[in-house]
From TrEMBL:
SUPFAM superfamilies: FAD/NAD(P)-binding domain
PANTHER family reported for this sequence: FAD DEPENDENT OXIDOREDUCTASE DOMAIN-CONTAINING PROTEIN, SARCOSINE DEHYDROGENASE-RELATED
GO cellular component: cytoplasm
InterPro entries: FAD-dep_OxRdtase, FAD/NAD-bd_sf
The protein, known as: Putative oxidoreductase
Gene field: ordL_3
Native species: Lachnellula hyalina
């Protein structure tokens, strides 16, 4: 049984981003981004109409969408604690992978079946929106629309997926885009020798740092100013009682609209979120493909390989350069309790050796076919390329915080989610017009429910 977040979180206090994080594969391949360290020595203005905190995909998309909706870019600044897009958006595993049905049971338990259906429909919508957006704006972010496999690696997990699939379908969930394969076909289609069963549905992959950087660049071209290495320490009420003062090491900026796109770090500035938000360090690895997965053998789909709900591995293979990005869940029974406990942290300066070893071991089991030289070693240049970590903001009820911050007029939160719906709310539209499930809203009702958990 996996330890609860409350148990793991003991002793880990809210924090801002830690300086000098390690670089991910994505960051290592985008060092020439001209705005990477934008305005790092400049003071912030005294006033600005919209202040976005955080330059990940949420913050970048929020600034872009505000300008799309007619706000003058000159009225928007973005404050980023480290280099541009250096949080989870610059260090994830590259999947653009909707949950097709698996989360239905969990979401239903927390939010009821109606919201669970909306959450899963929203997942599918997000994939379509990303595809549409990338095509419309010709975003060079290596987006590759394909399919994904949920590979069941044990009979127990196969039974679990079948049960959830059926419950989702019976509740009215759309499964018309999901294909199921029994053992033999699953093994042929996925090329995973020990697969017991598999599901397949549309999904994609991208270069997340290129996507965030494209959004930031587009916003900057429209007049938005990004201040990097400018960490916000607090937000206080301005003397006039209506605006907010945002405190940074390079001066304070007064604003009517504060938009917290700070993901795992959100509770530093919004302490009311602290009991419900856990920083979770995830680790990913880039691997240079051996011949079994190169050239015409390159994998066309992405993967989630599951032994149980919490013990799984994820893989994408990039179409452009064939690099494979392999992720390890924190629920692996092969990891020690110390390593598991160490995953609840804001520390992303390095990676965990035990998780790396587990990744390489599983890699050989799941994707055999390495070339060996005469001494039995990997061919030089193939195999492990790089390992890195990043911090995920996990909410206790599995959905992000999106919407107005209750009791703090003019403050908005968009933590652990893309920035689309929030802009409609900021510009005065009703929740129904955002298309987001109601349970994403951090209102009093949700806070009470979370507190009673
Ligand atoms: C290893 C890993 C693998 C993942 N794999 C996937 C995947 O395959 N697919 C997927 O969809 N998602 C994945 N995720 C999750 C995904 O990356 C996030 O959900 C997404 O990037 C969140 O974007 P964001 O903009 O909300 O947050 P972030 O990208 O984390 O941005 C928040 C920003 O706020 C800044 N900030 C925080 N506090 C302050 C402050 N006080 N002052 C100034 N700036 C501040 C941070 O420095 C950061 O840049 C993964 C995450 C990790 C870490």
């Amino acid at each position: 049984m996996i330890a609860s977040n409350d148990d793991l979180k003991r002793g880990v206090k809210a924090s801002g981003p830690i300086p000098n994080p390690c670089l991910s594969y994505w960051q290592r391949t985008t060092r020439a981004f001209p705005h990477l360290n934008a305005n790092r020595d400049e003071n912030v203005p005294n006033e600005c109409l919209y202040v976005i905190i955080g330059s990940g995909i949420s913050g970048a998309l929020t600034s872009f969408e505000l300008t799309e909706s007619g706000v003058n870019g000159k009225d928007i600044i973005i404050l980023e604690a480290r280099e541009a897009a250096s949080g989870a958006s610059g260090r994830n595993a590259g999947h653009v992978r909707p949950d097709a049905f698996r989360g239905f049971k969990h979401y239903s338990t927390f939010h009821g079946p109606e919201q669970a259906l909306k959450i899963l429909a929203n997942e599918r919508l997000v994939l379509n929106k990303v595809d549409e957006f990338v095509r419309k704006h010709e975003v060079q972010c290596d987006f590759n629309l394909s399919t994904t496999f949920d590979v069941c690696m044990t009979p127990e997990f196969t039974a679990y997926e079948a049960e959830v699939f059926e419950a989702f379908r019976k509740a009215g969930g759309d499964v018309s885009h999901v294909k199921y394969y029994d053992t033999e076909e699953a093994q042929t289609r996925t090329r995973i020798k020990n697969a017991v069963a598999a599901y397949e549905w549309p999904a994609g992959s991208s270069h997340p740092a290129k996507l965030a950087q494209w959004l930031l660049n587009a916003a900057i071209e429209r007049g938005v100013t990004l201040f990097t290495h400018c960490s916000v320490s607090k937000v206080t009420k301005h003397d006039n009682g209506e605006s907010w003062d945002i405190h940074t090491p390079r001066g304070n900026v007064t604003t009517r609209n504060v938009i917290h796109c700070t993901n795992a770090y959100a509770s530093l500035l919004l302490p009311q979120l602290e009991p419900h938000l856990t920083p979770n360090r995830a680790q990913a690895h880039s691997i240079i493909a051996p011949p079994a997965f190169s050239g015409p053998n390159t994998l066309g789909s992405t993967f989630s390989l599951r032994y149980d709900l919490h013990h799984f591995y994820s893989l994408i293979q990039r179409k452009n350069d064939g690099t494979m990005i392999f992720g390890v869940s924190r629920g692996s029974p092969n990891l020690s309790p110390e390593t598991l406990k160490g995953c609840v942290t804001f520390e992303d300066r390095s990676y965990n050796e035990e998780i790396l070893n587990e990744a390489l071991k599983q890699w050989q089991i799941l994707f055999p076919g390495k070339d060996r030289d005469i001494a039995g070693r990997d061919v030089h240049g193939e195999g492990l390329d790089h390992a890195w970590t990043g911090i995920i903001g996990m909410t206790a009820d599995y959905v992000p915080f999106v919407g107005p911050v209750e009791g703090m007029n003019g403050q908005w939160v968009c933590a652990g989610f893309g920035g689309h719906g929030i802009v409609k709310l900021i510009l005065g539209k009703e929740w129904g017009e955002t298309g987001l499930p109601e349970c994403f809203n951090m209102n009093k009702e949700r806070a009470l429910k979370l507190a009673s958990k």
